[in-house]
Design brief:
- The chain is mainly alpha-helical.
- It has one domain.
- 61% of the residues lie in helices and 0% in strands.
- It has twelve helices and no strands.
- It starts with a helix and ends with a helix.
Length: 314
């Protein structure tokens, strides 16, 4: 694990010194050097992810597609969402706006007596501490993601935003980031606050986010693939496709619980624990039913209509 951390650090340093730093000097932005170095890390992670998506994941989609892609215009919009998120543009925007707010809030709570806690100290005496702490943080954030995902489907105000993600009828490896930006702000803010509370190191946070995003891209791929018995422990494209099946997800069951199933992001163990797992054998159609609602075709239309739905006007 450490060799990978060191390799990434070297690549980040080289990218920063050879590309980002000269550009900042040229633009007269030397005052943001430290922040730009952090942003360079997110950029590097995104470039690696996109390279893997264009090679490995795209090859898998060509190998065993579930269905032919007929609405390429909708997929191109998903590509735009992916570039915004994976190249760090959205993450950097949060870094300069909301993240300082959460840092200040947690700092005030520390001063008020909130104890300092580091999750990875729960497993002392392990040889490869970096790997163990990575797994612990990955499990924690995946559980938090599961709870947030349940909320996105349970509360109708949140579904007004999250429904955009489910409106895509042509799921591909690009579909994971097809989200309303306000939806992402809420989710990412929650993850940042949890990260601050449990004391996750910045490098570990980047690794957890990057690993999660890449597996989410695989789960959304237009790929006829299950993981066999392993599917009970790791979300596969088939498992997650059931979550996106047409008409599923927004209807409550009469007891205040969200309709639908397979809310887990990486590990189906959360669905199994809370009774929301379904291991279907088919590769079902995806998207929302034709009920007269307009989710928008282009990026800006989708963002505007999401805000109108949230305000109860669409």
């Amino acid at each position: 694990m450490q060799w990978f951390v060191d390799l990434f650090a070297q690549a980040q340093q080289q990218l920063f010194e050879q590309v980002v730093q000269p550009l900042l000097f040229e633009l007269g932005l030397a005052s943001v050097m430290e922040d730009a170095f952090v942003a360079t890390g997110w950029l590097l992670v995104g470039l690696v992810q996109i390279a893997l998506m264009l090679t490995l994941l795209r090859a898998l989609e060509r190998w065993r597609p579930v269905e032919p892609v007929t609405d390429r215009a909708a997929v191109r919009v998903d590509v735009l969402y992916t570039l915004i998120h994976r190249l760090g543009l959205f993450r950097v925007a949060l870094f300069f706006t909301l993240d300082p707010l959460w840092d200040s809030l947690i700092g005030r709570l520390r001063v008020a007596g909130l104890p300092t806690f580091h999750l990875d100290t729960l497993w002392p005496g392990v040889t490869d501490v970096a790997l163990v702490s990575f797994v612990l943080y990955l499990l924690l954030f995946d559980f938090v993601d599961y709870l947030l995902h349940r909320g996105q489907h349970r509360w109708r105000w949140w579904w007004a935003l999250h429904g955009l993600h489910h409106s895509q009828r042509q799921m591909t490896l690009w579909s994971d980031n097809r989200n309303h930006l306000l939806d992402d702000v809420i989710r990412d803010s929650a993850l940042v606050v949890v990260g601050l509370l449990v004391g996750i190191p910045p490098g570990q946070f980047v690794a957890v986010v990057a690993f999660t995003q890449l597996l989410e891209s695989l789960a959304h791929a237009n790929l006829r693939l299950s993981f066999g018995p392993l599917e009970r422990w790791l979300v596969s494209p088939r498992y997650h496709r059931w979550h996106h099946r047409t008409g599923d997800g927004e209807v409550e069951d009469g007891h205040g619980r969200p309709g639908g199933d397979n809310f887990s992001v990486l590990f189906p163990v959360w669905d199994r624990l809370f009774g929301t797992a379904y291991f279907g054998d088919l590769y079902v159609p995806t998207g929302l039913p034709e009920d007269g609602r307009d989710w928008g075709r282009g990026f800006w239309a989708q963002q505007w209509l999401g805000l109108k739905r949230l305000a109860g006007r669409a």
